[in-house]
Design goal:
- The chain has 345 residues and is an all-alpha fold.
- Helices cover 63% and strands 1% of the residues.
- It contains 13 helices and 2 strands; from the N terminus they run ααβααααααααααβα.
- It has a two-stranded antiparallel sheet.
- Helix 1 (3-32) runs parallel beside helix 7 and helix 11 crosses helix 12 (303-319).
- The chain is flat, with a radius of gyration of 21 Å.
- The two termini are 27 Å apart.
Amino acid sequence: MLKEDLHAIKKIGQKDLNLASVIAFGEQLSKETEGSLSAVEALISTGVCGIIHSVFGGQPLLIVGVAEPTIIMYHIMYQFCASKPGLGAHLFLPWAAWVCVWTAFFLIVLAIFNACTVLSRFTRICEELFGMLITVLFVQQAVKGVLFEFLRAEDEDPNSEDSKFQWRYINGLLAVIFAFGLLLTANKSRTARQWQYGTGWQRALVADYGVPLMVVFWTALSFTKPRKVPSNIPRRLFCPLPWQAESLYHWTVVKDMGKVPLGYILVAIIPALMVAALYFFDHSVASKMAQQKEYNLQKPSAYHYDIFLLGVMTLVCGLLGLPPSNGVLPQSPMHTKSLAVLNRQ
């Protein structure tokens, strides 16, 4: 196998790893917003922003996607809308669109005034600490997701067969088995280069592509169950297609932005400031970690331009009723490292 083919496989593997995390965050987003947004919208946002950034971005190696900080902010925003009689849950997406409009404005202003120069004050330990924060959020939500499988979902019928204690316990037990099985086998596949089985390119293929391959394997294994087990055991992610009634509303959110009262449009500045500050640091730190000195990249950095482009992408996602995407950790430095050829001395 040619070296170029191996690089292509590495890049595909990192993209699929980002895809798996976006699906997981999309499921969490659906729970936090009571179905207003789902994994479908998270995937569309990641795809649209990924194409825009790969074509027009100053740092095309940067991986963008819907990350945990976005989920947290959208959960707070949804709770605010649901508690206000002037808004309500039905105006959550139009109000979130106004938040994205203000966020895009602040990001563009930051780019115009070269605010990314503050990154020169960041040391490597600051970047690693920020990455550790994201990792802690990943682990926290993973544990919460597994524990949730032992509980009855809010939209489930309490009198249904799969809501009984024994089936909920089995569902949670299967979640633990699948979670730890995927974790152990995925970590084992990453050490395939030291295996004594297969040829060199086969071991490299397993090492670079093993994580998404294990996701497919354990997902297929979840369908091998006795016939007497209820169909909802184990639970599966519900994803309405973009052209179905549950998702069609997102494409016309811009028409309902005029229904948001003027006072709440101005109030949207407050969460927009927090989201803009969060995206500014998250996107910039991810970009900086993706072009560390040991990778010896030839293309110069483009922090200010990428923040400007991030503002444009945030505006597009808000008008389409999608959660915005930004540079993510740890996928971005992992992507660059997977494509790099490093020599130890």
